[in-house]
Design a protein that fits this description.
The complex is a heterodimer of chains A (189) and B (487).
Chain A: H1 7-17, H2 21-41, H3 46-62, H4 73-95, H5 111-116, H6 119-128, H7 131-142, H8 147-154, H9 158-188
Helix pairs in contact in A: 1-2, 2-3, 2-4, 3-4, 7-9, 8-9
Chain B: H1 6-19, H2 26-40, H3 46-50, H4 52-83, E1 86-87, H5 90-95, H6 97-117, H7 120-135, H8 149-152, E2 194-200, E3 205-210, E4 213-217, E5 230-236, E6 239-244, H9 249-252, H10 260-265, H11 278-290, E7 294-306, E8 316-326, E9 331-347, H12 355-358, E10 365-385, E11 389-410, E12 421-444, E13 449-460, E14 472-482
Antiparallel strand pairs in B: 1-4, 2-3, 2-6, 3-4, 5-6, 7-8, 7-14, 8-9, 9-10, 10-11, 11-12, 12-13, 13-14
The chains are: A mainly alpha (189), B alpha+beta (487).
GO molecular function, one term (chain A): sigma factor activity
Protein name (chain A): RNA polymerase sigma factor
Pfam family, one (chain A): Sigma70_r2
């Protein structure tokens, strides 16, 4: 028995291999939060995230035979979710439906305000980035991809990957500063 | 106010991403579950479909029985109303011949007087009816046996009403909606009333139904009296002249064509009609219609396959083209071709698994989907044969040719490098591998076409396919049967 997965998880995976609907539901429930958090930072809304989440889980249930149980299931699941999100991004890119986010004012950020922001609010800031910035930022900063891997995955140059990352950081700072100003104004009144 | 460096910014968002845990929404699973059902090829409420054959069976058989018995009851009721217990006894009629001979003379005279005094229109009607009688094929109704009365008065479509010499409302002219085959009764007052001769005796009332024979009519109220529905006109020499109300008109409206009234006094030409025994005609019709030598059946059935009546999966489907040949009137030989897709799940122990599978791990269950061609050879016996319906049973053997097999191996626990599936085509022929048992109901919708519902069971005699599995199949054929007519 591989050490990465608990006995309960292994039982669920076996049930999923037999296409047992109850096991599939339990697995879905157990990893819903984890998988959804991945999907949300690669998409602009919860609806879009849900679509990618279910696409990803469909792959999990239909391709479970290819999962190597000697590796952690979470890692395999996150790879599937990220790949599904990237597929989705490529499809959107072909349709050229992306729009740009207005840049915020160039101001400094108050740490105390930032610390009060919830995880959901911070994720929503990532969602506000343009798709190209969002994808590169998520891949590099959160999911640990290198610029070479990103360039390869997105079929862009290494320089474009670095540039997108830099601009993504800049945009996030701007947004955080805007939140800071709004909160300052609210307190001042 | 401070500037946020890159690493701090990254750390902030990385931490949020790792700790962010969106709340579970059940409707997300519902959406995925539907997609998984589509992916698995399952229909919504798949469990319901498993019971469709049984449901149809429960529907068809009682409906068939109801139709079968209700039609008999209907005929019996009509006979009762129309005939009012008519019994024909030729011997009795001969015994009474002397009485009637004496009566005939006087009655004929009376009738001639009536005819001569009739208005011109009435005489024309009579002539019309006589001509119609000449055109008709079998205008003379034969004497009936008691048990044949029901059959002969069975309702027939107007287009087929001449079959076996049976006429609907023979004493009404075609103008009036009848066939006008044997109507020579007086019709002197009301349009729908008729008059006939009734000879009153101690026990019976006699009427002249055909030629020289008399019909003994069993009276309803009293055996020695003419019933109330005859409005008695007069009694002369034992002959009661009675008017019969409309509802009883058909029963007693028969006067022989050879009556002296017509052939001696009026010199009306009598039709020369070869006499034929209606029973023979009817029998010949039955032989042709009910027992055609050859028939072709096209059928569809849901296919529920299982190993040992357990682990039913979703129903497969089967289509058949069968040929039936009658070796006896009720016994047919059947053969043909059946194409089927069988889906089933069985325990691993019920298969002969290859070593390369079990060496790594033994599956707990195996799901199979097989495309098969089946050649059945069997017999069918009709327990009941009526004009419209039959109940039958069949038995025989089937041989299977497996065109395609696909197996999915299910494991309780995953073992690396386990075999998860196997697929193969044209994987073998199994001769006489199954015993077929069936029973069914057939309902004729026309001379050539009938509909059948036939539940069946295929019992395995040996294992078939790659895994040599003893596959039992049940279902219900819903077929159209075509009986070509050869001249």
């Amino acid at each position: 028995m591989p050490g990465y997965n608990s006995a309960v998880l292994q039982e669920l995976l076996d049930g999923c291999l037999r296409k047992n609907r109850r096991s599939q539901e339990l697995l879905y429930k157990q990893f819903y939060g984890y998988a959804m958090s991945i999907c949300l930072r690669y998409t602009k809304s919860r609806e879009e995230g849900k679509e990618i989440l279910n696409d990803g889980f469909l792959k999990v249930f239909t391709k479970l035979e290819t999962y190597d149980p000697e590796r952690p299931f979470k890692t395999w699941l996150s790879r599937i979710m990220i790949n599904t999100a990237l597929d989705h991004y490529r499809q959107e890119l072909r349709r050229d439906v992306f729009d740009n986010v207005e840049a915020g004012e160039n101001v400094s950020v108050d740490e105390t305000v930032i610390s009060k922001l919830s995880h959901e609010e911070l994720i929503s800031l990532i969602q506000k980035l343009t798709p190209a910035y969002r994808i590169v930022f998520s891949l590099y900063v959160i999911d640990g991809y290198t610029h070479e891997e990103i360039a390869d995955q997105l079929n862009i140059s290494l320089g474009a990957s670095k540039s997108n990352l830099s601009r993504a950081r800049e945009k996030l700072r701007e947004m955080l500063s805007k939140i800071n100003i709004d909160n300052y104004d609210r307190v001042a009144r | 106010m401070i500037e946020l460096p890159d690493d701090e910014l990254d750390k902030l968002f990385r931490k949020s991403s790792e700790e962010f845990d969106p709340t579970y929404e059940p409707q997300d699973w519902d959406a995925l579950s539907k997609r998984l059902d589509q992916e698995d090829g399952k229909r919504p409420a798949g469990w319901w479909w498993k019971w469709v054959p049984l449901g149809l069976l429960l529907l068809f058989i009682p409906a068939g029985l109801m139709m079968y018995y209700s039609s008999d009851k209907l005929v019996a009721d009509r006979n009762k109303k129309a005939v009012s217990s008519t019994i024909i006894q030729a011997e009795e009629a001969k015994r009474k011949a002397d009485i009637t001979e004496r009566s005939n003379g006087q009655t004929a005279e009376n009738k001639i007087v009536n005819e001569e005094t009739k208005p011109a229109g009435e005489t024309e009607k009579l002539n019309d009816k006589n001509q119609m009688a000449q055109k008709s094929e079998n205008p003379v109704s034969p004497p009936f046996e008691k048990n044949e009365v029901n059959k002969s008065t069975k309702t027939l479509p107007r287009s087929r009403s001449k079959a076996g010499g049976v006429y609907l409302e023979p004493n009404r002219s075609k103008r009036e909606g009848g066939y006008g085959a044997i109507s020579f009764q007086e019709n002197n007052q009301k349009r729908n009333s008729s008059v006939t001769e009734i000879i009153k005796t101690d026990e019976l009332a006699l009427v002249r139904p055909s030629k020289t024979e008399f019909t003994k009519v069993k009276l309803e109220k009293s055996e020695t009296e003419v019933p109330d529905f005859y409005q008695s006109e007069r009694v002369e020499n034992g002959i009661v002249k009675a008017r019969i109300q409309e509802e009883n008109r058909v029963t007693l409206s028969v006067v022989p064509l050879e009556h002296s009234l017509y052939n001696s006094k009026l010199n009306l030409p009598l039709p020369e009609i070869p006499e034929q025994e209606p029973a023979e005609i009817e029998q010949a019709g039955k032989q042709r219609d009910l027992s055609p030598k050859l028939a072709i059946r096209l059928g569809y059935s849901p296919d529920l396959s299982t190993v040992g009546f357990k682990n039913y999966s979703k129903p497969g489907k089967a289509a058949s083209l069968l040929v039936e040949y009658a070796v006896l009137r009720k016994l047919y030989i059947q053969t043909g071709i059946i194409g089927s897709i069988k889906e089933y799940r069985a325990n691993a122990g019920e298969y002969e698994l290859k070593k390369y599978v079990t060496d790594i791990a033994t599956p707990s269950t195996i799901d199979g989907i097989c495309n098969m061609i089946e050649i059945p050879l069997g017999v069918r016996y009709d327990f009941t044969q009526t004009a419209r319906s039959r109940f039958f049973a069949g038995t025989g053997f089937s041989s299977f040719y497996l065109k395609k097999e696909k197996y999915t191996y299910n494991y309780i626990k995953h073992v690396p490098k386990s075999k998860y599936n196997w697929e193969g085509t044209n994987t073998g022929l199994a001769l006489f591998s199954h015993l077929n048992l069936s029973a069914g109901y057939e309902y004729r919708i026309s001379n050539k076409f009938s509909l059948l519902a036939e539940p069946y069971l295929k019992v395995p005699l040996k294992g078939i396919g790659y895994g040599k599995v003893n596959l039992m199949t049940t279902g219900m054929w819903l077929s159209v049967r075509y009986t070509p007519v050869f001249k």
